[in-house]
């Protein structure tokens, strides 16, 4: 391994960081967290300077793409300071953010100005009551207005992410696809993952595979697989008559781990090597330790790569239940 690269024991080069800036959120999506979720105390969260320091070390180690996530990243009031600093880093090929869209009306413009190039907006339903049941917040109108605002400010790409659940919103996949395609937006349909036990929600009952979604869509749309690799877990399809694409993220039905190029850092400074396990390495302790140095942080991260597992086990017949909720890991 050269000095400026992160490579794991399986030869996978890690050049993509998902950096979570908060575990808090203004929604309570049923598959993501319980209504009465307990969040980190504020002093447990990394400060903006600390988040930047970690990002900076990763950039020095060859990371070229950073996605800001959460929780809902836009609930963090000082986020822009971080985005402007990262936006200035010429080494980065991409700076993107994943949001639930609830604050985009007021903030899309400043996000674009800060250097964010691409936006992922989560949207699981176009029906107000259903949206309110899924997000446990009646916010569909705000999100749709936010998406329109984002479209008007010139992001390089906007992608919609939809988690599809059987018996809940699987009858809506065509409607969601058309909503995105007609606006020139990509859309990815995501299989739900067993991240954090939510008492009121039985994941086994609602799992809807990408195959089922693809079949439904194929009744009405002509889809052809895109062969070029995109460097992510989505498998993309081109749709006849439209510019934008439909993707599928299929942790259960199509394992993509051999192409994994990413790691995640949680808002409280834990380095997560794989979504599918609870193991995490504490970077905050290094940052806040009396003997902090950039070199110590580099060594800790390089050493951690040895622990990256070959794959998650979501698609196996064994029951996998990760304790950590998705809002903590950052999607
Ligand atoms: N709050 C932002 C949002 O919703 O876009 C960013 C964080 S959220 C955790 C990132 C993505 O993870 C969202 O698209 C969400 O739908 C997805 N997600 C959350 N819990 C999930 C789960 N258990 N399985 C699959 N996707 C999940
Ligand atoms: Fe919040 Fe995103 Fe989780 Fe929904 S998926 S509760 S918007 S963090």
Structure explained in plain terms:
With 331 residues, this protein is of the alpha/beta class. The protein has a single domain, classed as TIM Barrel (Alpha-Beta Barrel), CATH 3.20.20.70. It is built from 11 helices and 12 strands. α2 runs parallel beside α3 and α3 runs parallel beside α5. The mean pLDDT is 91. Bound molecules: S-adenosylmethionine (SAM) and iron/sulfur cluster. S-adenosylmethionine binds next to β3, β5 and α11.
The number of helices is: 11
Strand order of the largest sheet: 7-8-9-6-5-4-3-2-1-10-11-12
Radius of gyration: 19 Å
Q: Which small-molecule species are bound to the chains here?
A: S-adenosylmethionine, iron/sulfur cluster
CATH superfamily: Aldolase class I
Alpha-beta content class: alpha/beta
- Oligomeric state: single chain
Structural shape: globular
Spell out the helices and strands N to C. Answer: EHEHEHEHHEHEHHEEEEEEHHH
In percent, how helical is the residue content? 25-40%
Low-confidence stretches: none
What's the CATH first level? Alpha Beta
- Proportion in β-strands: 15-25%
What distance separates the N and C termini?
A: 28 Å
Q: How many separate domains?
A: 1
CATH architecture: Alpha-Beta Barrel
DSSP, total strands: 12
**Average pLDDT for all residues:** 91
């Amino acid at each position: 391994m050269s000095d400026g690269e992160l490579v794991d024991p399986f030869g996978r080069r890690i050049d993509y960081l998902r950096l979570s800036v908060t575990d808090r959120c203004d929604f309570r999506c049923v598959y993501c967290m319980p209504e009465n979720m307990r969040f980190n105390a504020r002093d447990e969260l990394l400060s903006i300077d600390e988040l930047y320091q970690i990002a900076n070390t990763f950039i020095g180690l060859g990371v070229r793409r950073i996605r800001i996530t959460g929780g809902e990243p836009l609930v963090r009031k000082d986020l822009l300071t971080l985005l402007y600093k990262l936006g200035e880093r010429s080494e980065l090929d991409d700076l993107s953010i994943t949001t639930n869209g609830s604050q985009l009306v007021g903030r899309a413009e400043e996000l674009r100005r800060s250097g964010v190039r691409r936006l992922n907006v989560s949207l699981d339903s176009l029906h107000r009551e259903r949206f309110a049941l899924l997000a446990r917040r009646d916010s569909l109108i705000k999100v749709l207005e936010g998406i329109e605002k984002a479209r008007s400010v010139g992001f390089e790409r906007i992608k919609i992410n939809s988690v599809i659940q059987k018996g809940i919103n699987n009858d809506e996949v065509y409607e969601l696809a058309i909503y995105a395609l007609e606006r020139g937006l990509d859309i990815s349909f995501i299989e739900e993952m067993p991240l954090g036990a939510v008492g009121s929600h039985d994941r086994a009952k609602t799992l809807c595979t990408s195959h089922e979604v693809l079949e439904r869509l194929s009744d009405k749309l002509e889809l052809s697989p895109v062969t070029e690799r995109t460097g992510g877990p989505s498998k993309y399809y081109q749709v006849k008559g439209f510019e934008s694409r439909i993707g599928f993220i299929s942790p259960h039905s199509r394992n993509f781990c051999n192409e994994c190029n990413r790691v995640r850092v949680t808002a409280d400074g834990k380095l997560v090597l794989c979504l599918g396990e609870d193991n995490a390495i504490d970077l905050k302790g290094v940052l806040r330790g009396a003997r902090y140095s950039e070199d110590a942080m580099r060594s800790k991260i390089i050493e951690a790569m040895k622990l990256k597992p070959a794959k998650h086990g979501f698609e196996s017949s064994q029951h996998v239940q990760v304790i950590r909720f998705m809002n903590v890991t950052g999607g």
